[in-house]
Each structure stands twice: as structure tokens, then as C-alpha cells.
Amino acid sequence: MPITPSAFAHVRLTVTDIDRSRAFYDEVFGLPVAFQLPPDADEETRQQLSFLFGGVIYQLGDSLLGLRPVAKDRFDEDRVGLDHLSLAVASHEELEAAAAVLGGRGVAHEGIKDIGAGYILEFRDPDNIALELFAPKP
Hints:
Layout: E1 10-15, H1 18-29, E2 33-36, H2 43-48, E3 56-60, E4 63-69, E5 85-88, H3 92-104, E6 109-114, E7 118-124, E8 130-136
Parallel strand pairs: 1-4, 5-8
Antiparallel strand pairs: 2-3, 3-4, 6-7, 7-8
């Protein structure tokens, strides 16, 4: 009998500069922080939150999106591992609003594309990680 997961619990992206990446993800997505190490954390708290590796984990609906600062190179979707991360939005109108947010922050994107099953908006984070927003067709 196969394993039958029902959803992603979390995704963690490895980044080179946590401050730069946090600024990007905070500004672009504005997700609430689920876990981060407080600057004044005692040793017991540091031990409990050691799984963060100095990064942050955001709440994304019923899932989590984490950033882990350990990479020494740049993202390349042509290597084994992650191709891209696609996040869902409810409508084409939300994609239009997202394109305006990205444009207002100087984040390059490829415009909204019709891919048959829905619409996508592709862009990249500061480490060149390929990100996508997807809206289904009504």
C-alpha cells in the first residue's frame, strides 16, 4: 500500500543571506512569522529552536515556508532538487495585484501567462530561486 500524504507540511528554501531574503519575503508576501529565534533567547530556547539554523519559518495557510541561511552558491533549477516553488492565489485579479506589487518593488517578472489550466506569474527571489504564483481559471 503506498504512502498517501494529504498536503505539504512545509517547504524550506536554502538561502545565502538571511537578512536580504527575509526583507524580500517580508515585503513581497507579508506572511506571519511562525518561528524565529528571539534576539534575547536563553540557551534553552536556542536549543529548542536549533532546527531554524538561524533562519525563519513563515505561516502559509495550513503549511509552513522556511528560509535557511547556509548556501554558498546560487540556485539553479537545472540541478537535482527544486525546480521552482509555486504558490496559489485565488484569482486572475490577485495575479494582477501581485504583478503590481512586484513591479512596485522593482522585482522583475515575466507577466501573467495563460497555461491552459490557469494563469501563472513567474519571478525570482534574491538567490535566483524560481517562484511562481498560480491562479486557477474560473
